[in-house]
Structures are given as C-alpha cells and as structure tokens.
Amino acid sequence: MRTPSFAGDVWLPGDPGFEDAVFGRQFNRRVPDRLPTAVVAAASNDDVAAAVRWAREEGWRIAVRSGGHSWAGYSIQEGALLIDTYPMQDMELNEDRTILRARPGIRGGETLNPFLGEHGLIFFGGHCPTVCIGGYLLQGGQGWNCRGVGWSAEFIESIDVVTADGDLVHASTEENADLFWAARGAGAGFFGVVVNFYLRVHPRPKAWVRNVYVYPISLTPEIFRWAYDTFTDVDSRVEIVIVGQHLPPEQTGGVDVGPVAMVSGVAIVDDAEEGARLLEPFDTCPVLDQAIAVERHIPTSLAKELEMQYQQNPEGHRYYVNNAWLQGDREDFADAFARAFSELPNRKTFTLWYHQAPLPPISDMAFDLQSEIYFSAYTVWEDEADDDRMIAWTTDAVTQMEPWTVGQYIGDSDFGRRPVKFMSDEHFARLRTIAGTWDPQGVFVGYLSDTEGLTNVNTWETA
Ligand SMILES: Cc1cc2nc3c(=O)[nH]c(=O)nc-3n(C[C@H](O)[C@H](O)[C@H](O)COP(=O)(O)OP(=O)(O)OC[C@H]3O[C@@H](n4cnc5c(N)ncnc54)[C@H](O)[C@@H]3O)c2cc1C
To answer: Which atom of ligand 1 is nearest to the CA of 152?
Structure first.
C-alpha cells in the first residue's frame, strides 16, 4: 500500500497514537465498536483532496469529522478512511464585516464567537461551546434562539467542498446549487468534505436577560399545559426552554429537592428593560406561587450562557441522546412529557422541551422537518455497566412520545439505534438524487443504520 505524503498527520492501524486519533476527539466516551482503515488529520485543502484520492485508490469508503460531537459517533466507521478536518483552524472576516469564512473544525462557542465578539458581531451557533461548526451546520443547526432567528444553516452564504472525485468546488445558490442545497440538512449523510463555510454574521445583541423558574417536578403537567398555550405568543426574540433535571447540591444548600422542572426564558435584545418586558408572560404560570425559586431579569451574555453549558454536558462522560419533534393534542402529551421529566434515571440526566412555536418559514434547503415542540432526552453517566439501563430509559422516554412524533432532528439522533424520519419525503428523495450525482459510487459512508441505509420513515406508522 502506498501512503501519500500529507502536511498533516496520518495514522494506520498499529501505529502509535492510532486509537487516540480515532477515539480521542470523540465527545461521547461511549465510543462505537468500529475502526477506520486509517486517519488523516488534514492540514489543508490539498490534504483533504489527497486523502479522498487515497481512499479511492485503496477501495475504502470515507467518513469525515470536524468536532467529534455527534452523540452516535457518526465519524467512526468500520473500514472507512477517517478524514479529520480539525487541524484547519483559520477564519477571516470580509472587508465589510458581513461574511465570515470559517473552517469546519472551528469550535462555534469557544473560538468562532469570541473572534466575532471582538468585532461586535455574532453568529447564532449551537449551545455547546465545543461543538464544531462542521457537523453542526450540515445538520441544520439549532442555535441560540433558533425559534426567532432561524436555523443556523440558513445563514450559510456558500461553501467550499472537496468532492468524491477529490476536486475542490464552490457551492452557493448560484453555483453547484444542488450540492449547496444538500449541504444544509444532509448532516452525517453529506457526500463531500466541506473545507470552508462562508457565514452571514449579525451585529451582536447588546442585552441578554434571563428569567428562571424552578418548580417541583410534580407540577409538570400543569406547567406544560400552560406553556403550550402561552409561549407561542411570546416575542420571537425570547428563547424558551423547559428542562427536567436535578439541581447541583451547591444550588440547594446541600438539600436534595429531587428532580425539578426549570422553566427559563432568555431575551436576546439590545435593551435590558425591553428584555424584562418580553419575559413578563413567564409570570402568568398558574402554579407560580408553588415555585421553589424564581429569579427575574438576570443580566447574562453569550459568554455566561456558554459557561453554563459546560456544566450541563460534562466532558469525559458516556451519553445516549434521542429526540422527537412533537405535534398534537397537548392534553395527551403533557402527561407523557411529565413522565419523561420526572423519572430521570440518575442525577446527571436531563430532558428538554424546546419551544419553537410559532414556526418561522424555512429557507429552501434539505433540512425541512421541525414542529412546534422539540423534545430531547440526554442520558449522562460514567460506568460502562450502566450502558444498557441508560439506553433503555432514553429509548422508552422517546418511544412513549411516538403517537405525537412527526420525526426527529439529526443533531440529537442515533440512526443506528433509532432511524426515525428526519426530512420530508420530497426532500429525502431529492437528497438521494443529488447524492447519486456527486457521489455515484457511494464513497462517503453516510447515515449509519443497522439495515441497508436509512429509509426516513417512522416505523410505528408503517407497522
Ligand atoms: C454537548 C453537546 C451539545 C450540543 N448542542 C447542540 C445544540 O445546541 N444545537 C444543535 O443543533 N446541536 C447540538 N449538538 C449536536 C451537534 O451539533 C452535532 O452532533 C454535530 O454533528 C456536531 O458537529 P461536530 O463537527 O462537532 O461533530 P462530528 O461528529 O465531527 O460530525 C458529525 C458528522 O457530520 C459530518 N461532518 C462533520 N464535518 C464535516 C465536514 N467538514 N464535511 C463533511 N461532513 C462533515 C460527518 O458525517 C460527521 O460524522 C450538541 C452535541 C453535543 C455533544
């Protein structure tokens, strides 16, 4: 076998550091039981192109990694070359400071937004500081106040892609428009290596204001009914989340208050007083007088919000995550929700209601499936012996929502275990056609599934 020379590093099985190159950058420590044929840490576009050609010569398939944050470990594929884009870290703002060119291996919260902050700008990226923009943007990107701002992928102006032939092409709505359409929603099924994103950036909002309400978990049915009726009318500049979780002992004076429902609103505006006004509907909850704690008008910022995310998603842990886009009668799913919130299997696990309503229209791109309420369950643990129990709990939590589930979001998916619909039939068919044009031999591994590829159906609807 001929190993090409790369500016970046390359590891073959048996090389010192091979296992670390495969698994070391995987956020979820419950790593998959799969091994690539080799790993290339690409330091340049030429490295990426050479890696693609190498895989073609050897008859390998290809998987790509930016940040290694896919919960399911989508970048680690048996018998495929792993092209890791992380060594490329450069970014630049155009002259009129409207477009940022950024590499896929850049961390949205830790690197990209601090850089933009120096220029008074923001890109509405993901909630976790360490998620890289590569995987995040390709799947749609549920960033800060997605409800009001829209999906992050809607702010991609264009991309540079190394194709399955090893060619470097530019794609936008004007040039290679089908490839560009696919890149905004294909997620882990994308059939090329994105080496640059050109992102539209915004002036940074000056005031972030948070209200937080902590309720006993027993009140969740009442809270969900009220939330369902009330939040749709809340101003679109407010991000709304309800989390079922345990509070850290330092927040409760060492007392175990059991799981709680934490209702929070963050107004992302330019004026703190206006932010406080936009949060007033949160005070209309009929069980407000039974809240364990209420904090209003907390001045916050992107940096402070990101800091809190480190605590919620600790590093060095095992995770299983799954989700559901919900639609239907609030009377039914308020009770199912309450169960998923109250029966958490350990103190680190949390469940989430992310309020998306009213749904704004989505740009014409592959990503198109969402609903007014996003439910996701994040099981977090450390001991491998707990794997089966934690995975079973999460599976049960999302399965009991099936009567109201219209699909799922790739960002919190595990297609190998639960291949639920993630795109409309029309978009899925178009995506497959475009994949056939750009990668006719199926060199890029694409979606994981234990069958013959993903069918994009809700199995309980077809059974
Ligand atoms: C702690 C945590 C918090 C999160 N919070 C959010 C959130 O707030 N909002 C949200 O939307 N998601 C969130 N996610 C999900 C996360 O955005 C996705 O898992 C995303 O795919 C991670 O991107 P990555 O580049 O870090 O991951 P990777 O695992 O490196 O990439 C995932 C897949 O994307 C494809 N890919 C990656 N880079 C490229 C590239 N350059 N070219 C072609 N294909 C590529 C590959 O198929 C790869 O397997 C979170 C995940 C974690 C672990």
So the answer is: 11
